[in-house]
């Protein structure tokens, strides 16, 4: 690697991890939403003595029934999705903290000197885990 080239500093996670984390949270939200809707349907049927309206926006459905069903089902699904998404984020965080990766827990930093003046440029600091020992030696030696 030439001295003037900036090293690639891979931050914790990165795009692949971000996509996987979002997909995990989305799946959890969808599953929770479907489950909540089934529970709310069962509760509505038991309490009202009839199934919930299939199309609450239809003029054939009484206003009170349409608003009640929309409010109950919408609120229940939204809360279930929120709880599932937050739970998934917590699980992901715990799993990421428990799994050692090459980006996690960097204890040392290789400070690379700039080629121009030989002064230390903190913007070029890179975790040793992202550079091989040879690259670190090449960048720190004058």
Write the topology of this structure.
Elements: H1 15-48, H2 63-98, E1 109-110, E2 126-127, H3 133-140
Antiparallel strand pairs: 1-2
Helix pairs in contact: 1-2
Order of helix and strand elements from N to C terminus:
HHEEH
- Radius of gyration, CA atoms, in whole angstroms: 27 Å
Flag low-confidence runs: 6-11, 103-116, 120-133
Shape: elongated
Question: What share of residues are in beta strands?
Answer: under 5%
Distance between the termini: 15 Å
Counting DSSP E segments of at least 2 residues, the number of strands comes to 2
Helix content: 40-55%
Helix/sheet category: mainly alpha
Mean pLDDT: 75
**Mind summarizing the main beta sheet?**
2 strands, antiparallel
Arrangement of strands in the largest sheet:
1-2
As for the number of domains, it is 2
Q: How many helices in DSSP terms?
A: 3
